[in-house]
Amino acid sequence: MPNALATGTPPPAPMPDQGNGLQPGTPSQAPGAPQGAAQPPAPSHEQTVCALRHFHAVIGEAQTLLKDPAMGKSDLKSKIIDGVTKLVSERMLSPAQAVQQLSQVPTDPLEQRKWLQGVLAQAVTSANAVVDHHAAGNPGTLDWATESTAQHPHADHHLDLMAQLGAQYGGR
User: Fold this and answer.
1) Scanning 58, 80, 140, 169, which has the fewest C-beta atoms within 10 Å of its C-beta?
2) Domain range list for the chain
């Protein structure tokens, strides 16, 4: 199932039986990489923070839509469009990404609910995979003075950092 709201950056590898890229790779294997391939470097602190902001925004929109009492009973594509538009206005998605992803929204209400549940599951799994990969490559110092100096990305650089993260994971 394609991820309609979080595009191009999640590091999880596709599961052969699902073909949806929702599950992360094992720590000894790069997410999305074939067996024996070199693992990409762990995401930087800045990339990890950016990815978590991104996935948190996607999770929030998906949860809001799934809580709608009409979800699964009537066509809510207009509300899905509004949610994606909000993500574009917050610079979480580019307009081109939003258009491409919105073209994949089903018209059947039950399929829309399943689709959104998949988006939510993928965002949660992707966020966990990014954190796990970052933690594996950056064990930390346990020194607050050192750790507190880490740079946090500015929102203006979100799309650039997500593109870097996507390229790092082979466009996944």
Assistant:
1) 140
2) 45-138+151-168
